[in-house]
């Protein structure tokens, strides 16, 4: 791959016209819409956590001419007739593709909790504790590795739940209330999906369960959102209560399976004790003759998640198989060439380079690089009018690749323990601070390249622009003075390579048949 700094002119010319004028937000403005298709066979697609959609069982629904079902219809009509203006706004908010809305909730929580714990009065540091989430400091610190994992579990659980819902929808083919009773108005564009079980209820419950585990202090808020979403399903004319009950059952069971995996994936050990971190540093120094040094004041004793590289991956069996080769040794010809490049950028900061560095920074108080790419994905999901199961699939595979990319990147960071530019270049200054973990490879580059590759698989006609944005995200870290050029170029290749494992899995799930 050509080095990123040689692609500068081309990337800026293309991206400036296309991406960077787009105002990213954590809530998309969209209404219900006609799906490009309903994928009636999606119940046979291969899930990720379970072996088949039929693994989760639900009861057969009552017949549509039964007294029980007719009573449900009357109750729905009564509730719709007394709907308040606030309830109407709530119905409009959730729409007929609420996968996007729950993804937005996750992005908002990531931004809220993406705050690094500061030092104590005695200049020591305390870690967020899931057993005492109120702290201080509060749990979690939603840094990029944490964000990537939260989004992956949320999206995978949503996708598996949707497959199970689709399996039973087209097995039982119960029509939606508005199709049975003409007096029931339908608030959304109709896509003629069977209503039992409710895919919306699956989403509401599985999303609340996963996000509560990831952000325990938000339990009440998330429960309220779940209730609002469930209410919208009735008041929109989409479902009757028994549709919701079946959907909630699927959501609860899938969430339990997902959280069982999460409890044993190794994340709880990722923020290692100082002794473990020091041993990694010593091994790297003995092997390579260099070491990253944390320049924070007061010095934080351990960098960010030294053992995130040991967390269980989704699509890769052995993280070491994705670890790139050694970076240039400090003092070598290749290294000195990079020093010159970075010094030139630092001495000649242009408005365009500063804008790029800031646009892709995604630092503290934001939804992080993984969240940025979820935001991008949402725009294209809407552009191509994906239905809710296709939406869940897109987020699932993209976030699996992002998380796997992050694990591979962090394995590389703490294997090589490579110093940051600010540590090795005298009097060097950065645009956007310096993260508290080793340089090689660049997390932004890996996260972005992994996301871009999966999005290219999903939306092949848009592939060139996704890859250009990933290149620009990588460049942004060089312009900011945060990374060496080889951190970015190698990281981009690494992200693409890791993503291919996920794409290979996606190609076998039946959705492309």
Task: Kindly describe this structure.
This protein is mostly helical. It folds into 2 domains: 51-59 and 66-263, Vanadium-containing Chloroperoxidase, domain 2 (Orthogonal Bundle), CATH 1.10.606; 269-506, Orthogonal Bundle (Vanadium-containing Chloroperoxidase, domain 2). 55% of the residues lie in helices and 0% in strands. The chain contains 18 helices and no strands. The protein has helices at 8-18, 67-81, 85-94, 99-113, 144-172, 177-180, 199-214, 219-235, 241-263, 274-288, 333-347, 351-359, 368-383, 388-416, 421-424, 443-458, 463-479, 485-506. Helix 4 packs antiparallel against helix 13 (368-383) and helix 7 runs antiparallel to helix 8 (219-235). The longest helix has 29 residues, at 144-172. It is elongated and about 80 Å long. Residues 1-25 have low confidence and may be disordered.
How would you briefly describe this protein structure?
Helices cover 55% and strands 0% of the residues.
What order do the helices and strands come in, and which of them pair?
Layout: H1 8-18, H2 67-81, H3 85-94, H4 99-113, H5 144-172, H6 177-180, H7 199-214, H8 219-235, H9 241-263, H10 274-288, H11 333-347, H12 351-359, H13 368-383, H14 388-416, H15 421-424, H16 443-458, H17 463-479, H18 485-506
Helix pairs in contact: 1-17, 3-8, 4-5, 4-13, 5-7, 5-9, 5-13, 5-14, 7-8, 7-9, 12-17, 13-14, 13-16, 14-16, 14-18, 16-17, 16-18, 17-18
